[in-house]
Amino acid sequence: xxxxxxxxxxxxxxxxxxxxxxxxxxxxxxxxxxxxxxxxxxxxxxxxxxxxxxxxxxxxxxxxxxxxxxxxxxxxxxxxxxxxxxxxxxxxxxxxxxxxxxxxxxxxxxxxxxxxxxxxxxxxxxxxxxxxxxxxxxxxxxxxxxxxxxxxxxxxxxxxxxxxxxxxxxxxxxxxxxxxxxxxxxxxxxxxxxxxxxxxxxxxxxxxxxxxxxxxxxxxxxxxxxxxxxxxxxxxxxxxxxxxxxxxxxxxxxx
Amino acid sequence: xxxxxxxxxxxxxxxxxxxxxxxxxxxxxxxxxxxxxxxxxxxxxxxxxxxxxxxxxxxxxxxxxxxxxxxxxxxxxxxxxxxxxxxxxxxxxxxxxxxxxxxxxxxxxxxxxxxxxxxxxxxxxxxxxxxxxxxxxxxxxxxxxxxxxxxxxxxxxxxxxxxxxxxxxxxxxxxxxxxxxxxxxxxxxxxxxxxxxxxxxxxxxxxxxxxxxxxxxxxxxxxxxxx
Lengths: 255, 227
Known about the structure:
The complex is a heterodimer of chains A (255) and B (227).
Chain A: H1 11-24, E1 31-37, H2 41-55, E2 58-64, H3 66-74, E3 81-83, H4 88-95, E4 105-110, E5 112-116, H5 125-130, E6 136-139, H6 145-156, H7 160-163, E7 167-170, H8 173-181, E8 187-191, H9 192-195, E9 202-205, E10 214-220, H10 228-238, H11 240-248
Helix pairs in contact in A: 2-10, 2-11
Chain B: H1 4-38, H2 44-52, H3 59-70, H4 75-82, H5 92-118, H6 121-128, H7 133-144, H8 146-161, H9 165-171, H10 181-190, H11 194-225
Helix pairs in contact in B: 1-5, 1-8, 3-9, 5-8, 5-9, 6-7, 8-11, 10-11
């Protein structure tokens, strides 16, 4: 019987192992994987660039709705830092042993806006009361805190029943914005951060007393507990440079 | 507490969408398949490629173009305008349009294959018996191509039931209108309602198994004794 006795692994095996470690290996020191709630996309990108410049670490973002991210984290996603759009999920991550206790803090507070791609369509509360639109977009309230805030505001204004049949639900706040921007829904509740730097259309900043404050919490996940880059990123997120970016996107800085 | 109303509404909607899509595809797809099978035109491969595109395109590409095309500035908005609407996105009709495009290759290809397998002889024979081309098509080609129609219909139906990406992008997740099974499952998973998710996902698994298994059995039977 022929038996191969060579102890050295073949070149193919080495290549395979090297390839797999590229795909699956733990994040290298100096790199941090961050799961980010969609509303924070623009701000996170800019903060990420500043962070890389300031510290030399690398940051990799993954954007999805807070609910989606939490589900992924609970199933072992390789995120090291979680930037949610609410307080509930980061707290839940701590409770379930997925995140480092005591690392949670509010990195931003968000605002919702009734927005339309059409000039003059949104004129404040009256727009919701008159209901001269066929579709109104919100983010899915079950998974996206900005959607839950929109429902709360509609409720408080007493118009939820009146518009319920015309609601379309974006899978996250980015898709909600896209429904409105393409004109498929004439109006929709989006995050202020999505339109703070854009002109055009018409908008109404929803008064803060109509919905519970959208406090967005960050938390260090167990996956990144030993990664200095992860801690450095959270530190940077609290700092003055990050605060400037947040403000320019219309966020409260939370601290 | 499992919300059965919600689940049944998604099931009914999905079955309605798949049925209507399949019927549309049989009507639209048959002439296309016939032309692809019989034509000598140099445009033939071009059209065949267009029909097959959804096989390789990510659903996001189709979803994105559809969202724009169905919207108020696209042809969809124009059609919706005819009956007082302003966009075909977020409507059942919009989903049918999307599904017809997306499932087209699954229906056209088997029917085309069946037409090609006929060859010229049965039609020539019909012609010598003074059947008009139209009559020959209905009384000879279609009955002989029945297995192709069956496969196409089953695949088109099953593929539409299994559709997700396009619907997620143009549907807007409206219960009873665009919230089909696959989207409902996604929702349940994302909002951690795993009991509902298990129920629906398990149901889909059984359904898909039965559909494909039945098709294999039918194919075997057709090969043995004819339809």
